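Onboarding guide, step 5: your first structure request.
Type a short instruction followed by the sequence, for example:

Predict the 3D structure of this protein.
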Amino acid sequence: MTFKQALDEYQSRVSILKRGYETEVHKLSVLKRSILSSMDISSIKGHHIASYRDSRLASKNPKTGNLLTSSTVLSELNLLSHIFDTAILEWGIEIENPVKKVRKPKPNAARERRLSSREEKQIFNYARKYPNPELLVIILIAIETCMRQSEILGMKWSDIDLKKRIVRLHMTKNGSSREVPLTETAVSTLRKFQHNNEFVFTYKSCGLKTVWKTMINRLGITNLRFHDLRHEGISRLFEVHGLDIVSAATISGHKSLSMLRRYTHLRASNIVKKLGKQQKKSHQAVAQVFNPYPVYLTKFKDNAWKVEVPDLSCSLSNLKGGKHQAIIEAKSFIATEVLRRIGLSQSVPAPDSYLTKHLGERILIDPMTMQH
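The system replies with structure tokens like these:
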């Protein structure tokens, strides 16, 4: 069997069953034009695969004129490997998988392209004026729901429950179904756009790709893909909505949390703002519990000190090291006692709730600072 025959067999029996059939057919066509195609499948060795790998890494993308990315070549090698495995396991061809004997190129670093506020305004202004109103809705849904382009274009009105604010996706890229929650903005937009057709949008993938490319070029925006809107939406799940990574994965449909991390690039400035808000809330919560307490100090002849905290019904005796050291130990003791009561779900009395007369010196000690 020649390798071209194996490729044709794989396309008709395996690729045809995949959701990404059209994309895989393109990869197979590249393999069919390679020198591997004319070889007998049993004669292909590791060094042949290595030569194919190196020639592809040195090739240029005919559309962009740039060298093929390592991720593109890695994807082709993964397909090659599966073809050989299929021939071995299902077609009874007694060979070894030569792809497993060569080094694989490392995948490209994760894209860090985010949508700037200026670009967002430009895109929405353009889409509002565009003759086909679908463009504006598609872009908004992409950001608000983090859905893939294929998922958005495949939506049917029967899949959408505007009352429950949910979109049911029956088949996704990773082969499973999922429910996507809709924001209020998404629901409001879909209500206004609602019509009686089966599918929500009439755009096909190639048509939307053309419109997107034209828009980006006219606006002078560089290196922004439609898929980056999904990246943007996922990042906003963390930055704006404050979701944890598991909740975000439920919405985005990522089965691997490591893949979700690759798609998520949070702006440092937004994280700083969030940290500032969290820190302020923490300070407020701490201030409600750790208040300055009145403490009574008594000095004895041997320079030992006694500290009494009436509100907490406790005292420390025979403290050495002078008055300053006694205050430090009192501060630590008060903080520990307050935390102990919180841990036991006991009430923490407010300062001055215990009124009595003491002969010693009275001072206020704040357990969270050295102030008194």
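Each response can be followed by summary notes, for example: The chain has a mean pLDDT of 83.
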